[in-house]
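[job 0417] fold request received: Cysteine synthase 1
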Amino acid sequence: MLSSIARQVKPTLGRHFHSRAVPGLTAAIGNTPLILLKSLSEKTGCQILGKAEWMNPGGSVKDRAALGIVRDAEERGLLKPGGTVVEGTAGNTGIGLAHVCRAKGYRLVIFMPDTQSREKIELLRMLGAEVFPVPAVAYENPANYNHQAREYAEGRAPHAFWTHQFDNTSNARIHYLTTGPEIWEQTEGTLDAFICSTGTGGTLAGTARYLREKSDGRVQNWLADPPGSVLHSYITSGGKLTERSGSSITEGIGQGRITDNLATEIEHIAGALHIPDSKTIAMVYELLDKEGIYLGASSALNVVAAVELAEKLGPGKTIVTVLCDGAYRYQSRLFSHKWLKSKHLLQAVPEHLHKYIVL
Ligand code: PMP
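[job 0417] inference complete; emitting structure tokens
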């Protein structure tokens, strides 16, 4: 079956396209499997389902956002053939954009804090991006990587496009157009709840909105938050924004403000769960041991949250969450005895799973 993204692309190739192959890398983004997490489903009496976003070509859920942002910019005439895409991050969005930009022939320029690992810079350069490490200063400082990305793009307009993933609603839109409908079809409309954590808010807001509208409000959408994020308290306090405090080992999630991607959907979110790192890290190991799935911390946090939501809603429910990326990019930390100890998380890993701590 072609993904909905592939179906939209296929007609442009004309009548010579007679294969069941998808037309190029960007059409291989999305349409990921929905996996029943058996041990946790048995434990809770609910169906706990994980959307396998780590199976996207760039290895994460952010491939969708990268494609959605680039495609909308093309359609709006903001990105022309041979143009430049400018991004201000070192994470999964940068990797997704690098793949999409190579596949579509755009130059990609990335500004990122110089505190990021050499591996990240090297990977992005290997994928063809031009990377500019800049001093790691707070958002309020004009030298912050986000502002540098924006200024660089503005200085080269109209040939450069700043992705602005936090407030560019093309991000949530692609989840509304693809992730939401895929989950609806894969569960045949029987899901009761969707829960996931938030970085930009694109995944949660776009997917939640589709599921809410399609089910006439029957599907409950929940947010899962790591320590150091303000969204959990925003939702549970009825809309008060607090200062950020605390921190988490989870990468790519946690938010200090209501991004434009979140803005229109957050008032419809049914509730929020706050998940400590100790539970998240234990779930990284449990998912590997019981399900054979090797996932990063944000995915593990999402699964912990899905289990807690199952316990709240009671047996017989179907709960969907997002398996955002694999553990590959984090394994030197997540599976290191020294690192776990330094974060006081060694004791969070159950004794019988210590055999996986090989570094
Ligand atoms: N997990 C990981 C590993 C990520 O990189 C991100 C994106 N920053 C997310 C989850 C959250 O996705 P979103 O930006 O759509 O909220």
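[job 0417] notes: The chain has a mean pLDDT of 93. Residues 61-168 form a domain with the Rossmann fold fold (CATH 3.40.50.1100).
[job 0417] exit 0
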